[in-house]
Amino acid sequence: MHLIFEPIATQTVRALRAGGPDANGQPAERLKAEGTGNPCRHCLDLIPEGAEMLVCAHRPFPEPQPYAETGPIFLCAGDCAPWTGEGVPPVLRASPDYLLKGYGADHRIVYGTGGVVPAEAVEARARALLSQPEVAFVDVRSARNNCFLTRMRPAV
């Protein structure tokens, strides 16, 4: 199974860069990236230290509901291309492990799918989850802070 790593939609990122409201109805904060732990959810790469970045609330679900987690994310403040690359994006090679959760087509967690896995096992675990008929997509989050990183789906 070939996997697709989905970046946050360019339209959403453009709106946030232009001062539009985040998931909490606020404009994004503008900060300088410090260190190497600032993953952009659009290009799925790390924001270079000292570069301007946006910090905002994001809910990667179409509408609020009990399983629609909202949390902080980082974005490059300047233009960056959405991830379209092959293989595992850089944001999933920067930490020793990640939290994966499977969701159904109704955007609700499929119980029993959540777990922290080593970075080198992310693809294998996502494939195993996506082989379950009730799992439509897998969200990858920080194992340390629970921040949303990317969504994985099988290529069609």
From TrEMBL:
Pfam families the record matches? DUF1203
Origin: domain of life: Bacteria
Designated name of the protein: DUF1203 domain-containing protein
